[in-house]
Write a structure and sequence with these properties.
The protein has three domains: 53 residues, Double Stranded RNA Binding Domain (2-Layer Sandwich), CATH 3.30.160; 79 residues, DNA polymerase, domain 1 (Orthogonal Bundle), CATH 1.10.150.130; 172 residues, Intergrase catalytic core (hpI Integrase, Chain A, Orthogonal Bundle), CATH 1.10.443.10. A hairpin with a 5-residue loop joins strand 2 and strand 3. The protein has 16 helices and eight strands. With 371 residues, the chain is mainly α.
Length: 371
């Protein structure tokens, strides 16, 4: 059952230590108990956890979040895209490490984590990312038997505030902005009708365009992280073929006329990748100028991806077609993101069904009238 012994420290203070055998039968001790009662309680706790199979080695429980966090981040770096890892690393440095880095894993309490989550004061996405890092590190600690349970699990997270109504450009507005963009007309139309992500667009090469069948082969994604461009796969790691309207294809052909198959189509003027174009109040980008000249309210370039979805649905595309065009992981995701577009589609479906029933003459009087 273990034993308790008193001793004096260097200052002559009387303290207590406990000696016991771990589940692996190795003898160990814990020191520094100020009262014999505290030592007795700890020894009893050890015996109970051993009996339940929940024993945690005292030294293992003293490992800090900083120590485990470094290993955890390294493991994520090898499996995440550079942009995703950059967001994770920034969240660790800004929110997790300052609050929890110095703490031993066994010292963390559920109520503390809840207070921290409630007090971050950022968007639901930022809070969820920071919380997810801490919870995942503690998951690892639990699996490694450093803590009996994860104190972060079961914490209430803030709900996402419903987003503002999404703005979709009409055909007329899209072409007005494209023409105002001048030498970037093909870029705007490609985003507005094909729904590519920015990283997919700036990674396009001439060889990716099938000018005969009118298709764009999306096989890569380029992400800028800390001023450096990283080449990788599309977001879902799957290539796709995206249809291109004839008018847009004509402009892509014109832009590619002097390019080699391996050349980037939308480059920075020197053959390299373009930096993301801003539309913020203080910027002086060609995109912001084009919006102002076309009389369209301020939008970001990613809004053209939403416009592509809207124009496709209005042209009769079903949810599976929109999913394949945009490169979503599933049709369910497309419905979640663009449920408002398909609500309109359902209204149109109802009208077509009413017209079909009327044209077939199959409806008759109500039962009461027939009786």
């Amino acid at each position: 059952m273990g034993s308790i012994h008193s001793y004096e420290n260097a200052a002559g203070q009387r303290l207590y230590r406990i000696i016991y055998r771990r589940p692996d039968n190795k003898q160990t001790q814990e020191r520094g108990f100020r009262r014999k009662r505290d030592a007795e309680l700890r020894l009893a706790e050890v015996e109970v956890t051993k009996a339940r199979g929940e024993y945690i080695t005292h030294s293992d429980g003293r490992v800090s979040i900083d120590e485990l966090g470094a290993t955890w981040l390294t493991s994520k770096q090898g499996v995440l895209k550079p942009s995703s890892f950059a967001s994770l690393e920034a969240s660790w440095k800004n929110y997790v490490a300052p609050q929890w880095g110095h703490r031993a894993v066994t010292s963390i309490r559920h109520s503390e984590v809840q207070s921290w989550v409630s007090g971050i004061g950022k968007s639901a996405t930022v809070v969820a990312r920071a919380y997810g890092i801490l919870a995942s590190i503690l998951d690892t600690a639990e699996r490694d038997r450093r803590v009996a349970s994860n104190a972060a699990r079961g914490v209430a997270l803030p709900r996402k505030v419903s987003q503002k109504t999404r703005r979709y450009l009409t055909h007329q507005e899209l072409w007005a902005v494209a023409r105002a963009a001048k030498q970037h007309e093909a870029l705007v139309l490609t985003l507005g009708y094909c729904g590519l992500r920015w990283g997919e667009l700036i990674g396009l090469r001439k060889s990716d365009i099938d000018f005969i069948k009118g298709r764009i082969n999306v096989t890569r994604n380029v992400v800028e992280v800390d001023g450096e461009f990283h080449l990788g796969t599309p977001k879902t790691h799957e290539a796709r073929r995206v249809p291109v309207p004839a008018e847009v294809l004509t402009r892509l052909e014109h832009r590619c006329k002097t390019k080699q198959p391996s050349d980037i189509i939308f480059d920075n003027g020197y053959g390299g990748h373009m930096k993301r174009v801003r539309a913020s109040e203080g910027s002086k980008s060609w995109w912001k100028t084009a919006l102002d000249d076309a009389g369209v309210e301020r939008l970001v370039l990613h809004d053209l991806r939403h416009t592509a979805a809207s124009l496709a649905v209005s042209a009769g595309a079903n949810v599976k077609a929109v999913q394949r065009m945009l490169g979503h992981a599933s049709a369910a995701m497309t419905l979640d993101v663009y449920s408002d577009l398909f609500d309109d589609d359902l209204e149109a479906l109802t009208e077509r069904l009413d017209a079909a029933i009327a044209s077939q003459g199959v409806a008759s009087l109500l039962p009461e009238a027939r009786g």
